[in-house]
Amino acid sequence: MTGKNSVPTRKDVAELAGVSETIVSYVINANRYVSAEKKKRVLETVEKLHYRPNSIARALKGKGNSHVLFIADNVANDYFGRLLQELDSVAYDKGYLVSLMSAKNNRDFITRILSRQVDAVIISSASLAENYIQELVDNSLPVVLLMTRDYATVHGPAARIYTGIESGIMSAVRLLYESGCRNLVHVDRVSRNLHFSNRQDLRFRGFCNQMETLGIQLTEHSIISGCRDYDELFSAVCARIQSDEPVDGFVCRNDRLACTVLNAVLACGKKVPDDISVIGFDDSDSSKVIRPALSTIAMDQKGIASAALELIEMMVNGQTPTEKHLVTRMVLRETTRQ
Amino acid sequence: MTGKNSVPTRKDVAELAGVSETIVSYVINANRYVSAEKKKRVLETVEKLHYRPNSIARALKGKGNSHVLFIADNVANDYFGRLLQELDSVAYDKGYLVSLMSAKNNRDFITRILSRQVDAVIISSASLAENYIQELVDNSLPVVLLMTRDYATVHGPAARIYTGIESGIMSAVRLLYESGCRNLVHVDRVSRNLHFSNRQDLRFRGFCNQMETLGIQLTEHSIISGCRDYDELFSAVCARIQSDEPVDGFVCRNDRLACTVLNAVLACGKKVPDDISVIGFDDSDSSKVIRPALSTIAMDQKGIASAALELIEMMVNGQTPTEKHLVTRMVLRETTRQ
DNA sequence: CATAAATGTTTACACGTATGTAGTTACTGA
DNA sequence: TCAGTAACTACATACGTGTAAACATTTATG
């Protein structure tokens, strides 16, 4: 070992164990015959020095880095936080390291990823251009898509995880319908950049599909979108309630929206859930502490994380990726009937 | 370039530009004389091929990886989510990649980090043993400590960021005192593992210090701790209110706790803030949507993130790290008077 | 016993990069 | 003209690893 406090290398192990470096390598990777005696000596030395192969050097030899990159628009919310936590947990168990990058639409973004030698990327972004994803795929980098929208134009061997949001929203709509609601409104995200959901967005699609299945005509009054912040949303909800068009249920794209909607509904003097039902999405802390407690849809973050890593391991091993389907869970609290 | 879809290397650039690999290297790193003409050719070729030096190979040569590791107990909460987001943002601008690891107290954890060749680690953990941190420092790995507690035994060149939580809590206590509260209670974390806060914990310390400054004697009734979950906390708060000991203010270690406290207070028929004040910590979504809206303390995640990367750059450049001090911001809403 | 086969070990090179050192050319001043 | 230097380029090596191929030794086979 060169310095007193430097990380030991294969060479250090070999010298101390009195064998060649190659033997050490074979023992570590367990892919060649090594005599039992030397193997034992090597393993003891490894233990003694706390040797661990340098993953950087290993990556350089093209043997994989055990490194996955998670790309999302914004990790600062309950859903992503928990997903990241689970991802980190299953990744750690499999020896993987998880890195993070916000989705950015410029070329540099792609070359950066490529130059990082990560083994795979997991993408959960509404804003990342599909041709960038395509480029990653074309560079034979294993890609796992968390389907929050329909990645229509992405071709080639990309793994897809259907998190169940579409059917989750559909169940929510059905639930409200069965509890008597006939005038549902879908609440879309608030944003300063004004890009609204469309049929590519699986939540929006789920809402529309289920409404159609129920034979309900969608109108401009069925959707609240285009609000730039939560105050605007609050006002929009109040205006909607006080308008001539009837409403008896709000299906919201996430809990944060749902809480604002709920507060607006209550502020208008309506009873929840008797007059109006509200349902959110995420099972966030907010949904648990707000009163009345918000009914919501919980995603299976742990399942998603496991699925992602399974798919990655498949792809890393050269297998063609499959699709994985997960389901959401309804969490019925106090803003829905029954 | 070897395959059609493979990442270009320095060699590809050199061949296409008609220069030697060394020249390319010098141009990229701008640390040697290169004729203007060749420099131009190289840069054009770099642009054309979208070449970017392989950070893995560069790291192997000991030139740094532009890679920082963020270690926390649990990223699944509002505070960490936003911090991570900011960290990712400033890191990206400086060319750094941010990775994630949950704090684990075993040797393997340390060797894993060391074998990853990261340039620095940022630690924000209440549970990671200090001797593990010490070991990272001893291996001359730049360490930035986010001070949520007093890392008393960590010696050597570790950078420290004081996020202002201690003075934040102190301000909160003072505020409640000045608004008339004379019987304050500190609400500690809920946990199944039952490790309570002590004077090492900066929030707890802040509470105790300010109480002492105000000349208020701390008793066993001044603290609610040891609850294993939020239901238990709810009951504990109700019991406390209905006991003989007076209460007129709760200072909570985070918003999630504060929301449960607030709901319990209201359930006991008390008026907030007239009878009892409640203050949280984090400025989370929950604090914004709960009614009455929760007064809370906001941390400067962006400032913390910037400070962390500044400190890291200092340490990477061989300078001895300094301390950084940030401040919290009081967000007064409806659960405190005035 | 000779030879083939199986087992165990080592040598040598490659991955993509940075850079010390040496080499080449062109320019300067005497 | 020649030495000396500045400006530029190239060679060779190293980082820590994986592994093909060569080599060495033991064991099995005819």
What features would you describe in this structure?
- 2 copies of one chain form a homodimer.
- Chain A has 3 domains: 10-61, Orthogonal Bundle (434 Repressor (Amino-terminal Domain)); 66-164 and 300-327, Rossmann fold (3-Layer(aba) Sandwich); 165-298, Rossmann fold (3-Layer(aba) Sandwich), CATH 3.40.50.
- In chain A, 43% of the residues lie in helices and 14% in strands.
- The first copy, chain A, has helices spanning 10-17, 21-29, 36-49, 55-60, 78-93, 107-115, 130-138, 165-178, 202-213, 230-242, 255-267, 285-289, 301-316, and strands spanning 67-72, 97-102, 120-124, 143-147, 158-162, 184-187, 223-224, 249-252, 277-279, 296-298, 323-325, 329-331.
- The longest helix of chain A is centred in the N-terminal third of the chain and has 16 residues, at 78-93.
- Chain A binds a DNA duplex (30 and 30 nucleotides) through residues 9-11, 19-23, 25-26, 29, 31-35, 38, 53-54, 56-63.
Please describe the structure with a list of short key phrases separated by commas or semicolons.
13 helices, 434 Repressor (Amino-terminal Domain), Rossmann fold, six-stranded parallel beta sheet, 338 residues, four-stranded parallel beta sheet, homodimer, DNA-binding
List the helices and strands and how they pair.
The structure is a homodimer of 338-residue chains.
Chain A: H1 10-17, H2 21-29, H3 36-49, H4 55-60, E1 67-72, H5 78-93, E2 97-102, H6 107-115, E3 120-124, H7 130-138, E4 143-147, E5 158-162, H8 165-178, E6 184-187, H9 202-213, E7 223-224, H10 230-242, E8 249-252, H11 255-267, E9 277-279, H12 285-289, E10 296-298, H13 301-316, E11 323-325, E12 329-331
Helix pairs in contact in A: 1-2, 1-3, 2-3, 5-13, 8-9, 10-11
Chain A binds a DNA duplex (30 and 30 nucleotides) through residues 9-11, 19-23, 25-26, 29, 31-35, 38, 53-54, 56-63.
